Amino acid sequence: MQPEADADPEWVRALSGRSPASVGSALEEAAGQRRLFSYLARQHRLEGRESYVEIGAPLELHALVRLTRPEHVVEVGVSSGVSSAYLLNALALNRRGTLHSIDLPTHPSRRRMAEGPIRDSWTLPLGRSTGWAVPPGLWRRWDLRIGDKRHLLPILASQVPEIGLFVYDVPHRDEDTRRELRTLDKHLPRGAIAIIDHGPGGGLCSALRSWAHTRRASPAGRSGLGLYGARAIRSS
Ligand SMILES: C[S@@+](CC[C@H](N)C(=O)[O-])C[C@H]1O[C@@H](n2cnc3c(N)ncnc32)[C@H](O)[C@@H]1O
Fold first, then answer.
1. What is the CATH class of 9-231?
2. Pocket lining: 147 vs ligand 1, CB cutoff 6 Å
């Protein structure tokens, strides 16, 4: 696991609306969380996961939470918990807020296990559960729910009044994402940020594009990744 070396300040600026100077300090602070990074890297090494599937912009997520200070963050797709750990660390520094995460873990098939060390980094190592790399000290602000997003997102939406940041990092079909954004829409107030990962080289999905359109938001892409976000300019 390598530290993120190419954080994109312009993307954070577009999503947070904060000044370049504040964004620069927030990203510097995120990069300075060396103990967190070392802990995550050690956990991955222990499980033989030299590479892993993670959102690709953990420093930007950390900075966005520090800059916008959301009370509720919702995340779909946890895996080992790299994005969760950065979100939780930022909430801990803010001394406020909860991360609500949903994950349906992927177990390696018997055939893959028989073939030797698991290379599919998003699968659960034997004896581990979702979020296995997250430092225990960060769990206090974590509401982690295990199950399919199709069932759990509507329940979560009925329980969380206002979502300041929504991070969606899960394989998805456009029609499902569209329905899920509709479910969450009234809980995303003006200023709320929605981020969707479309995989390496993936383009902006039409679900996020239309949500952004109805909320007068301009979708912004993180340089070099299929990661897009938008900040709601008007209420739902
Ligand atoms: C790309 S990984 C998440 C990586 C994580 N966000 C990070 O940055 O470290 C996607 C996760 O979504 C889970 N997943 C797949 N389908 C799902 C579904 N229908 N509902 C909830 N989680 C799902 C996978 O098992 C995997 O743990």
1. alpha beta
2. no
